[in-house]
Amino acid sequence: MSLTVYAPASMGNVGVGFDLLGAALAPIEGSLLGDRVMIAEANAGLTLNTTGAWAHKLPANPRENIVWQCAEFFLQRLGKEELGIALTLEKNLPVGSGLGSSASSVVAALYALNEYFDKPFDEQALLALMGEFEGKISGSVHYDNVAPCYLGGMQLMLDLPGRICESIPSFEHWYWVVAYPGISLSTAKMRALMPDSYDKSVVIDFGRHLSAFVHASYRQDEALALAVLKDVLAEPYRAPAIPGYLEARDALAELGMLTSGISGSGPTLFSVTSCLETAEAAKAWLEAHYLTEGGFAHVCRLDMQGTRVVASEG
């Protein structure tokens, strides 16, 4: 038996919901923006090969790769360390991009392993495991990338026993333009830019904006959602550390984009519109003015499927 699993890119925070909101991305042209993991039977032991455009950014030692560590844990947990398993990670997301790169690898690996071994973990247990392993890379356990990557759509983090997250309605006519400029920024370092404490008024604004956005999502009140889709916790401190971000945000507003923000901890930005023509114009501007070597931009909808098997034999 062999199978291939795809795990989509994701936006953590979605601007308004620091660590509490995330969304999966699907380019409208049909490309798969995310990592893939292939798993197959082997003669003996565990092997890991890496391919893809960003494989050269991964550790040279396979044992240091999070996909290897996911597989090692799985085999030990099932008491099947003697089994031969061959894994291949197709690394299609840049490391430190703000697109949930580590989450995509972790989610694809654990989903593939769970499918291969007839689903020993249920959905919530597997999601908790995904958060734990992703946290080993980002420095802390948070689900705003792994949850939408795994489950698709827009996910609100609850972090309650047995209810880690819940999906919330999205605005299906929105286009999400995302642009990765071609540089990498450490999630841990970008988190360190934020203050240890906030003024009470800022905390109140954060709660007001997030609750209003969730309310607007259920009411499908686009004007309200756009009015409160702003980041008062992280963007004021992170924006100056992302080359060209502030200039790009202003230019996108002039083009008619409805709102813009930082995807995850950056440097990828996102921008929202309900007009495809405006989205394509924004993409073109970003390609000309925001991207450096290795960068890319996509016009996306939200990926409602989440992680899935894209090939299977045996």
- Structural class by SSE content: alpha+beta
Biggest sheet features: 8 strands, antiparallel
For the record, the count of structural domains works out to: 2
Ends: how far apart? 4 Å
Strand content: 15-25%
Mean pLDDT level: 95
- What's the CATH topology name of the largest domain? Ribosomal Protein S5, domain 2
The count of strands amounts to 13
Low-confidence region ranges: none
The number of helical runs is 10
- Along the chain, the helix and strand elements come as EEEEEHEHHHEEEHHHHHEEHEE
Rough outline: globular
CATH class of the largest domain: Alpha Beta
Organism: Shewanella amazonensis (strain ATCC BAA-1098 / SB2B)
Pathway: Amino-acid biosynthesis; L-threonine biosynthesis; L-threonine from L-aspartate: step 4/5
Binding site for ATP: 94-104
Catalytic activity: L-homoserine + ATP = O-phospho-L-homoserine + ADP + H(+)
